[in-house]
Amino acid sequence: MFKNCRAFTLVELLVVIAIIGILVGIMAPALQAMRESARRTQCQSNLISIGLAMQSYHDRWSQFPMGTIADSGPIRNEPSGSHHNWLGRLTEFLDQPVIAANIDRSVSIYDEKNADVLALSFPGVRCPSDVGVVANASSYVGLHHPTAKPIEESDWGMFVLNQALNREDVLDGLSNTVFVSEKITTLGDLGWLSGTRATLRNTGGGIQTDLPEQVLEVTEVGTIGSRHPGGAHLLFGAGEVRFQTEMTDQRILEQLADRRDGQLPLQFMSIDQQRRQSVQ
Questions:
Q1: Which of 64, 111, 207, 238 gets the most CB atoms within 10 Å of its CB?
Q2: CA-to-CA distance for 197 and 74, rounded, in angstroms?
Q3: Which residues form the DUF1559 domain (predicted)?
């Protein structure tokens, strides 16, 4: 005699498989959103560390690090010249004394003596969402100017050529001035210690989150952005890290990047006030 055995019928098995498939389809976007939230948190933490390092640097030297060093401007996106940048000056304050000790500032950052440190893939300057093809790139850039232009000594941002600025130079106030932003890494990036468009940008092109590979002239700098959906993190001079959406008014971005425009902050104005301001 045969014993009664409990088992799934073919129809029941197919129904169970279909239900599992539906559940996986529903959960996948939620899991992806959780991963991106974790990446954004890590990115924000990186910027907070950079902000603290910047204030420690100012406390010691009574000035912020200069954006880049060169005999003259405009800066070209080429591995030629000194090009020691602001990030290299912060390595000691980012708790990286070994890296700091191995940077030889008596020669170009591209010199053989600096080849090892330039080639490092330093996680402290890399956003987890910025999965660019350049392993030694920085996801974070100092702002040299509010509008699109080459990097020169006459720029109005916080990190410019051959100039070390201090808190008194920020006429708009530290809390109203963006020091550092994210960028999307693309081919041709010269590395996290290179004082070129690799670590200096302006806000002339707005905040971009879907940047195709571009062929830029050697003196073009490029704009800010990130691989985060909807916007990018900005680090203000007072230490605040704010996620700014890609829909931010271009006038507000340019004002935030300008350390000395002396205008009432547009971001604090109502829509009607902003409209009246644009007419004037």
A1: 64
A2: 11
A3: 32-250
The two three-digit tokens of residue 218, written as one number = 């050697």
259-269: b (≥16 Cβ within 10 Å) or e: bebeeeebbee
CA-based nearest residue to 179, from 95, 241, 243: 241
pLDDT digits (tens, 9 = 90+) for 117-167: 999 999 999 999 998 779 999 999 999 999 999 999 999 999 999 999 999
Say how far apart CA 156 and CA 143 lie, in whole Å. 9
pTM of the complete model:
0.86
| Residue 171 structure tokens | 């006429």
Residues 75 and 108: their CA atoms lie apart, in Å, by 14
Cα–Cα distance between 201 and 183 in angstroms, integer? 8
